[in-house]
Design a protein that fits this description.
- The protein is of the alpha/beta class.
- It contains 13 helices and 16 strands.
- The protein is globular and about 60 Å long.
- The protein has a domain of about 270 residues: Alpha-Beta Barrel (TIM Barrel).
- An eight-stranded parallel β-barrel has the order 1-2-5-8-9-10-11-14, surrounded by six helices. A two-stranded antiparallel ribbon has the order 3-4. Strands 6-7 form a two-stranded antiparallel sheet.
- Helix 4 runs parallel beside helix 12 and helix 10 packs parallel to helix 11.
- The longest helix is centred in the N-terminal third of the chain and has 22 residues.
- The structure holds erythose-4-phosphate, phosphoenolpyruvate (PEP) and manganese (II) ion.
- Phosphoenolpyruvate binds next to loops.
Amino acid sequence: MNARPIQLSEHFRDKRWSTSSWRTKAAAQQPVYDNLVDLEGVLERLRQMPALVRSTECVTLRQQLAEVANGWGFLIHAGDCAERFTDIHRQELTRKVRAMGQMGLLIQHATQQPVVQVARMAGQFAKPRSQGMETVNGVQLPVYRGDIVNDVTAHADARRSDPQRLLQAYLYSAAVMNQVRALSGESLTSLGLSEDAWHLSRLGELTQEERSYRHVVQQLTTILKSAPDGAYDAINLYVSHEGLHLAYEEALTGTGDDHHPYNLSTHYLWLGERTRQLDGAHVEYFRGIHNPIGVKIGPSCKPEELQALITQLNPNNEPGRLTLITRFGKDRIAQSLPALIGAVQEMDARVIWSCDPMHGNGIVSSQGIKTRRFQDILSEVRSAFDIHDAAGSRLGGLHLECTGSDVTECLGGSADIQEATLSENYTSACDPRLNASQSLELVFMISDCLQRQALRGAYQKTGEMREIG
Ligand SMILES: O=C[C@H](O)[C@H](O)COP(=O)(O)O
Ligand SMILES: C=C(OP(=O)(O)O)C(=O)O
Ligand SMILES: [Mn+2]
């Protein structure tokens, strides 16, 4: 079905876009550099650097996402809150790719539909912050803004914005991308899917839920054993990051094979909750690139504002171009989401709805550590499914902060992480991530919602109608 173009306001139609037109607008959350000559030198070097992705890969991802927007398939978008240069480590990367693949397999098993996997990886180095300054041990310091800007160490020198980090971020992204590409097309099984990798050995006294998780893993293991190598579990991972540091993004924007502008440092970019001002520099940059994009939507977003954002970011109403990533918090989703769904339905906008159950559920432990409760995260995802179902809409994606190793950053889950043990292996430099077992558990615990949705009647696969269930 061809989507109806959305009416662009005159205000917008008149404006010419270029890779640098964002510079005429107010840009939130940008670092301040004290040496602009150094900065310009680094940006010039970045402009000469090879692309990290091909525009044709972005087009393929857009096509796969178009299927999801049309009701066929599911998007899993997940990874670190902030990648760190020092965490870029061969085995750690393999664990992250494996965890993504395992979540993908569980979703595919529940829905019997394709899963599109996009990692927050190979460039997720820039962080927007609530405050510009913080006090550590009585000393006022600029906040950490991600490894692309400064260092997390609580010292004035470390917190200075250093332009050389832009080049390092590019080079580390290239190194990560190289490993992602090396694993692409491999079978996930070849990365090792032992009982340990499914975190089965953790389960002690088996509850009903744990028994059925074990059963699903056994089924998957049988399917994987009988399928030809890679037929069911081939790794096909796209990469993404928040398009925050606009000078960096501009330097890595080039012309694609189809002669349109693309950000060639990543397949997919998203616009953050703190930088999606309608008249701001980030929206200006995003509207011109042809990559598939996402935009975070928090409780402050009004229906008319969402409609204006959609109009600016996807004026031709192309399915696969735009994902709305909602992040309200478990207690606010019921109040915020229905009116926004109504706004999207009113304009017949072809978007993917994705749920980020992380960023509205942050809490601080009694020892002052940033954390999130597994139960709150699960509750927001379940509510998102229910609210979309009730409104005749469809939840097409899940957006998580998680990692492939055994960190202790979020509370609860079957690993039962408590406040007292949070500091045992808390390595995130920004927000708390689900560890590998909590991630698999979360995805498993929404299998019923995924299944119900997949069986819920008619859906549209590009060009044809099919009935299931
Ligand atoms: O990842 C998201 C934001 O950068 C993060 O939640 C901001 O954290 P802050 O409120 O500690 O600045
Ligand atoms: C900054 C982030 O989220 P949000 O913009 O939703 O706060 C993030 O995804 O890490
Ligand atoms: Mn985050």
